[in-house]
Amino acid sequence: MQPYLWQQAEKFRHVYDTAAWYPIRIDSPFETLCGRTVTATARDMVTGLWFDPTCFECELKLATLAGWSSECLERLRHVQRGRKDGDPTVER
Asked: Are 6 and 14 in contact (CB under 8 A)?
């Protein structure tokens, strides 16, 4: 089992700690790396149909946990800032 996995919930794709929350269950709240407690619906659990945008905070925290250098993390922040209007931002 991977230590962290992505799961769509509440209109974003979040990352969660598998040691604490695996397996994610429909209608059961779980905590994400961004610190939010979210709940996946049946729609969120359909494999291959994850169209919701990535949670930038989860993405950045996962990169940090993966040991990315400060230079790579800054590049990721730059990419996140450059995403199109209407995309979710780190500050919600």
From this structure: yes
Dump pLDDT digits (tens) for 47-87.
888 889 999 999 999 999 999 999 999 999 999 888 754 55
Q: Is the residue at 61 inside a domain?
A: yes
What is the Cα 28 distance to its own chain's centre?
A: 17
Residue 43 lies in a domain: yes
Q: How far apart are CA 56 and CA 24, in angstroms?
A: 20
- What are the distances in angstroms from CA 1 to CA 9, 27, 40, 81, 84? 21, 23, 20, 32, 34
- Against a cut of 0.85, is the pTM above it? no
- What is the per-residue burial (b if ≥16 Cβ within 10 Å, else e) of 56-76? bbbbbbbbeeeeeeeeeeeeb
Read off the DSSP letter of residue 54: B
